[in-house]
Amino acid sequence: MFQADWVYHGKPLNLFQTHPDFSIFCSLSMYGEDLRTIQWPELLWLKRSRTNGSFYGRVTDPNFEKSIKTRKPVDFSGRKTCALRARFWLRCVTRMKQSIASKGGAMLVCHGKPEEVLAKLPGGSLVVCQSEPVSPEQTDVEDQVAKALSSHCELWRKWGAMSLYHRKDLPFPLTDGPGSYTELALTLGWEDLWRSPGRTADATRIRPPVAAPEVWPKAVANLELPGIMSDLVLNDERESLKFLGYTAEEIEEDLQEPVLWDLPTGYGPAKGHDALQWANLAKPDGWLRISHYMAVGCISAREILSRAEESVNFNGVAHRLLWRELHRLNAIRWGRRLFWLQGPGRVERPWSWDSAAIEAWKAGRTGVPYIDACMRELKQTGWLAYKGRKTAGFYFVFILGLDWRVGAFHFEDVLMDYDVAMNYGNWVVVAEVDKSSRGAHGFKSVQDLAAWKKEEFEWKLSAEKKNDPSGEYLRKWLPELGKLDAKHIHEPWAMSEESRKTGGCVLGQDYPKPLGGPFRMREEEEEEEERRFHPNDNSGNRYTYKEFIDFAMSKGYDANFGKKCWEEARPVAALQEENEQLRQQLQAPGTPGERTGKGSLEHLMDFFASRYGSL
C-alpha cells in the first residue's frame, strides 16, 4: 500500500483503485477537489488472497446474488493472475514505492482483502476510490469496502484516469452509448478516424493529463494495517511470490528464464508511411509497446494521446485508444452480461468443455503450428500480438467448440497487459455472442458449427502463411518443426509420410495430429468447395455447405435447417456421374435414343438440365 499522510479537510485521506486481484490504495491529502492531480492510480496496493483454483463468477459474488442465482459455477482452474503477471505488478508497485520515497513520502503494500485491510484505518478517515466501473468484480470490491467503512470512515468514488474521456464530458449516458466504433468516433467529434485525426470544432473534450506530485508529505507514524509486505520481501521476487501464495513449482517455472519486460514492437515510418501502422499489426510484434503499463495504470490513455499528438503516428494512436474506449463503454453498459456464456447478445448454441482440448490449446499442443506458436509465446512471455489473440480465440471457439469464457479466463491469467474490458470485449466479438443479430444461432452440435466455420479458419491460417512465408515465427516457438521446409511448416499434415519421417515430424509422435483438422491452405484462385444442388431449387444454382447455412439463417431459420437442406441436396460430382451414365445409356445400341434419333436425346437432356441445371 502506498501511504502518505496528506490531509483533506482535517481528515487522513486514502486513495485506492479496485481490482479483483490487486487493489490499490494510498493515504493522501488533497488541497483541492480535483483528484486528477493523481495521474497514476496505483498508489496504495493490496493483493487479494487467492487459492490455486478460481471459480468463474464466484470471486466477489460467490452466491450470484448480483446475477442469476440459478447459474452454475465453472471451474476454470486458474488463479486469474499467473506468477509472471504477478511479477510485473510487483515490479511496477515497487518502482512506484521507490519513486514516492525519493520525494519524501512512503507507501505500504498489503496482502489481503481490501475491505478487511481498510476496515482497520483510524476512525474519521476519508477513503477516495478511483472507481473502475468496467468490471463487476471491481465494483463489488468497492461495495464491500463501503460496507466495511460505513461505521467509522467515509468513502468517495471518483472516475479516475483509466478512461480517455471523463464520464461528465460524454454527450450520452454511460448506459446508452453508441454501439459501434464509427458511431462512437463521430459522436465524440472525430471527423474520420479511419483516415485522419481531425476533430470538429464542438468535439467532446479530452481532459489534459496532470503531472504526478513532485513532493509528498511525510508518512503517518506507526500506521499498522493487516498483511503489510516488508521491504525485505518486496525486494526479493521469489519471496514476494511465495508471500502471495504461489507454489514453489510456479515460482521456479516463472523465474527460470529472463523476461523481456519492454515488449517487442513493429517500427515505422516506412516507404509511403502509414500512420495507422496496418502493416505492423500483421506481424507478430504488433505495434505499441506500452499496453501492459497502461493496463495497470502506470501511464494513462490521456497521457499517451497527449505525448503522441505531434508524432507522425498520432492518427494510429488515437485510433487504437478509441477502440479501447469503446470496449470500456461496452463493458459498463453490459455489466455482468459481458461474462455470460451466451454473451451480451444472449446467443444460444452448443458448447464443449473437453478438458483435454482445453489443456492442449493452453500448452500449444493442438497440432496446428500457428496456433501452437501463439500459445507458447503467450505462456512464456505474457504477450501475444492482437491478430494472434483473435485467431487463437477463433480456433478455440469455433473449431474446438469450447466455452469462450474458458479461453478468456486463460488470457486473463497470463496476459501481462490484461484489461478486463479489452480482453472480454474482444472475446465476445470473436465468439460472436456480443449481439443477438450475430452469432451462430440454431446449431445442434459443435461439430456442425466447426464445419460451418472451417473454411473461414483456413483462410485465416492462409493469411498467416502469407505473412510469414519462411515460417520464421513458427520455428522460434516450435523447435520440433525446425527441420521442415517453408512449404510444409505451416501444414505438416500435407507432407507425405516419408517426408515427415525425414523431417522428424511424425504426427502423433513428434508433433500432435491437428485437432479439428486437417486443414488446407487457400489461395485466391483454387478449386472450389464442394457444391450441391437442392431438388426443390429449379434455378440450377449450386451452393457450398456454408452457403446453405448462411441462406437458412438469413431467412429466419436456424442452422439445423440449413444443414438438413445440405443433406437433401445432391453433390455436383454425383450428378455429373449420373449425367454421363445417362448419356451412355441413351447412346447405346438398342436404346430409345438409338431408335428415335438425336431429337429424343436432346429432349431427355433438356429435361435433365431443367431439373438439375447445366453441368
UniProtKB/TrEMBL annotation:
Classification via Pfam families: DNA_photolyase (PF00875), FAD_binding_7 (PF03441)
SUPFAM superfamilies registered for this protein in UniProt: Cryptochrome/photolyase FAD-binding domain, Cryptochrome/photolyase, N-terminal domain
Cofactor: FAD
Source organism superkingdom: Eukaryota
Ranges for domain Photolyase/cryptochrome alpha/beta: 25-164
InterPro entries from the UniProt entry: Crypto/Photolyase_FAD-like_sf, Crypto/Photolyase_N_sf, Cryptochr/Photolyase_FAD-bd, Cryptochrome/DNA_photolyase_1, DNA_photolyase_N, Rossmann-like_a/b/a_fold
Sorted UniProt keywords: FAD, Flavoprotein
Span list, region Disordered: 516-538
Family as reported in the entry's similarity comment: Belongs to the DNA photolyase class-1 family.
Protein name: Photolyase/cryptochrome alpha/beta domain-containing protein
Native source species: Durusdinium trenchii
